[in-house]
Every structure is written in C-alpha cells, then in structure tokens.
Amino acid sequence: MSLKLSAAVREIKGEKARTKTVLPAVVYGMGGEATSLTINYDEFVKLYAEAGEASLIDLFLGEKSDGKVLIQDIAYDPVTDRVVHVDLRRIDMNKEMTATVELRFVGEAPVIKEQGGTLMHAISEVEVKCLPKDLVSHIDVDVAVLKTFDDVVKVKDLAVPAGITITSPNEEDLVAKATPAMTEEEIKAMEAVSAPVDLSKIESAGKKKEEGEEAAEGAEAGAGKEEAKKE
Question: Region Disordered: start and end of each range (predicted)?
Fold first, then answer.
C-alpha cells in the first residue's frame, strides 16, 4: 500500500499559516535541516486515520519527491481537539529505525464467551526496531488463546513479523487477559465504597461542634467572672 502526502514549503509562522483547510507542519531528520511546511488539513486527517504513526509515507513538495517520512508527533487544540501542528520524520531506508506500533486485538476469548467476563488490555502499543522495509502498521494479538481466567498474553507471546524486534515494554509484561465478571457482593461492596458523602450530616456535625465549643467558652468566661467577684 502506497501512502502519499503533498506539502508546500512555508515561510511564515505556524499560527499565521493555520486556517480551516491549511495545517502547519515540519519535516526533519537524516541529518538535514528542518523544513517548515503546510499541508491540506482534510487530506492529512484522512491519511492519518489510515496510516497511523507506523506507516511509511511518500512526501511530495509540490511535484518533487522528498523521500519517506513517518508521522512523528501531532499537536491538538486542548479545547476543540482539532489538529494544529504535525511533525514528520525523514527515514533513511538503509538504516534501522525505531517506531511505535499499535496492537490490534483480534479473535474471541473462549473463556469470556463461555463464562462471561471482561477482556483486559494492559498495553495498546509497543516500541519496535527494524529496517524501514520491515515496518508494519500494527501487530495482531489473537485472544483466542485465553481459554481460562489463568491464561495470559505477554509481550513474548506476540506474533512479531520477521525483521522486527520489540524493544519496549519488557517481554514478560502483560498484554491481555480475561477477568471474571464481578459478583453481586463485589458490586455492592464497590458501590458502598463509592457512595456519595452526605454533606448535610458533616455540616450538622460541624455546627454541633462549634456550638459545643461556644458553650464551653461561655462557661469558662462565666466561671472567670464568678472568681473575680469572690476576689
């Protein structure tokens, strides 16, 4: 599958170049200088949905090819969650590279089908090292091996394509397991722990405490006056 992204070199700052249809970006890597770019917003969003961060993309500056790149980083508007900036990393096809690869959970866990419960995902991506030609967009995790609640899938159990080495997390780290459905007693216990606090009772208790303190202070003051009279 060939993925392409068209861009244009920009001379102005990102926030000034940014519009509803124009997205500022930068490309860097392979020892070359960083180049500021603009790309079509809708084209990028569509490409990213297909490519993710672990698919090589052919970058074109106008009609000229600028080599292979990866989507390295994306900045989002904290309010609208709209993409506001993109970092692209140039890739040397002759050197090993590192990348983040998504895990896709496929199949059905027999124990959940038969006894109910929940499939727990401990991680959703891994860091890998490989030559660019061996890079994959995702690694499948077959949960059909989870036949009992004691069965687990660890990083070392993943079916990793040839030429790829997982560098993080550790090979003994958990990827997925099935957990049994909660009993009624467990649900009730959880609800009891998370039950809302009755603020009116706290406030009432606080008032009673204040009233008690005021009464004690009044009694002490009265006793003091009586002592003064005797003197």
Answer: 200-231
